Amino acid sequence: MPFHTVHVIDSHTEGEPTRVVLEGGPNLGSGSLAQRAARFRAGHDGFRSALMNEPRGLEIAVGALLLPPSDPSACCGVLFFNNAGLINMCVHGSIGVVATLRHLDRLPSGACTIETPVGSVSAAVQEDGSISVENVLSYRTRHSVPVDVPGYGTVLGDVAWGGNWFFLTENHGQEIHAGNIPALDRCAWAIRRALASSGITGEDGGEVDHIELFGPPSRPDASSKNFVLCPGGAYDRSPCGTGASAKLACLSAASQLEPGQTWIQESIIGSAFRGFFRPSGRGIIPTITGSAWLTADARLLLDPADPFRDGIPASRRPSDCGEYRRSSSRRGAPG
Ligand code: PYC
After folding, report:
1. Where are the beta strands (DSSP E) in the chain?
2. Distance between CA 330 and CA 199 in Å, rounded?
3. What is the pLDDT of residues 239-278, one digit of tens each?
4. Which residues have C-beta atoms less than 6 Å from ligand 1?
5. CA-239 nearest atom, ligand 1
6. Which of 29, 49, 88, 263 is most open to solvent, judged by the fewest CB atoms within 10 Å of its CB?
7. What is the average pLDDT across 149-164?
8. Helix, strand, coil tally for the chain in percent (to 5)
9. From 13, 79, 91, mutation site for ligand 1 pocket: most ligand atoms within 8 A of C-beta
C-alpha cells in the first residue's frame, strides 16, 4: 500500500511551534469553518493525532490545516488543532500561517483575512517583519470567581474569551519563572480540574480549557509574565495570543488599560507579544503582534501498515503523564 503523504511547513512563533498542513489533509467539503471543524472532529481525528502525537508529531505544537475560505475575500480558512483535539482559534498559529504564506510568496499584499471556526481575523506583516493579528471579539464573562482548588486553597480569577476560554489568575501563590515549570504545571492542572468539577464554564458552556497564571515580568520592557497551560497538557512557549487577548479584555473591563495603550505580555521562556485593543460591542478587538521563524519544510509519510500510523495518544503512555493529568476526564485532556 502506498504511503499517504502530507506536506507541512513548520515554524515557531516566539518559541511556540506551528505545523501548517499545505497538502494531504482530509477533504472536508464546503460550508462554514465551523461545519468543516465538526466534520474534521467526527471523521478525521486519526489524521490530527498522526500529525501531533508521537512518534511523528510534536506534542507541544499547534497544527493548522489550510482550507479554501467560504468567503472569497478571505485568503484562507484554517482549522487549528493540538495533541488533544481541535482548538477554536490560535493567534501564534495565525502568525505562523502568515509567515508560511509569505515564505511561499502567497501573500503579495502582506495582509490577509483568515477564517476560523469562531470568526475571521485579519493579519498584516509589519515593516520590521513582525506579524500583527487583529483577533476576534474578546470579553470577560466572570470577575474574581473563587475556585476551591484541592491542595492550593481558594484561587480567585477571571473567566474570559479571547478565541478560546481562559481562566486568568494572579492569585495562585506560584513563582512565574522557567525553573518552576513542573510546579506551575501541577497548579494549573489542579485549577483546571477544580473549574470543571465546580461547573465553571465559558458562557456558551464550553470548557475553560486554557489556564493562565500571571506574575511580574522579568524583561524590563514587559508589563507582565505568564504561564499558560494548553488543553493537551503542554504549556505555551509563546505568551499565547488568545490568552493575551483575554488578558486585554480583563484589563479593559477593569479600566486598567486604555484603548490603544500597549501591553507587553512576556512568556514563561522570556519571549513577548505586544498587544493593544479597541473597544467593540460588549468587549474589545485586540491586536497582537509577534514574530515567527520557519523551521522545516517536510513531507510526512503515513504508512497504512504502521500500527502507530495515527500516533500514540498520551492515554496509551501513562508513565508520561502524572496522576493529575490522567485523572482529568474532561474533553480536551490528553488522550
Ligand atoms: O497563541 O492563541 C495562541 C495559542 C493558543 C494555544 C496555543 N497558542
Report:
1. 4-13, 16-23, 62-67, 76-81, 86-87, 111-116, 119-125, 131-134, 139-149, 153-161, 165-169, 210-215, 224-229, 263-266, 272-280, 283-290, 292-302
2. 12
3. 999 999 999 999 999 999 999 999 999 999 999 999 999 9
4. 16, 62, 87, 90-92, 230, 236, 238, 240-242
5. 1
6. 29
7. 98
8. 20, 35, 40
9. 91
Instruction: Find, among 99, 56, 115, 131, the residue nearest to 306 by Cα.
Output: 56
Comparing CA positions, the residue from 97, 95, 80 lying closest to residue 126 is: 95
Give the pLDDT score at 232: 94
Q: Express each pLDDT in 270-301 by its tens digit.
A: 999 999 999 999 999 999 999 999 999 999 99
Whole-angstrom Cα distance, residue 22 to residue 76?
Answer: 11
Reported as a single tens digit per residue, the pLDDT across 215-230 is 999 999 999 999 999 9
CB atoms within 10 A of CB 271: 20
234 CA from centroid of ligand 1 (Å): 11
Closest residue by CA, ligand 1 atom 8: 240
Let me know: does 114 contact 241? Beta carbons within 8 Å.
no
Residues with a catalytic annotation lie at 90, 240
3-state secondary structure (DSSP) of residue 87: strand
pLDDT tens digit sequence for 105-137: 999 999 999 999 999 999 999 999 999 999 999
Write the DSSP assignment of 318-333 as a string of letters.
Answer: GGGS-HHHHT--STTS
Helix axis angle for 45-52 and 33-43, nearest 10°, is 80
Nearest in space to 292 (alpha carbons), one of 131, 170, 74, 128: 131
Mutation test of ligand 1: which of 82, 87, 88, 247 has the most ligand atoms closer than 8 Å to its C-beta?
87
Compute the average pLDDT of residues 28-55: 97
Q: Who contacts 46 (Cβ-Cβ below 8 Å, separation ≥6)?
A: 309, 310, 311
What gap in Å lies between CA 190 and CA 181, rounded to an integer? Answer: 14
- The span from the CA of 235 to the CA of 240, in Å, is 10
Output the CA–CA distances (angstroms, integers) from residue 316 to 53, 85, 192, 311, in the order listed: 11, 16, 22, 10
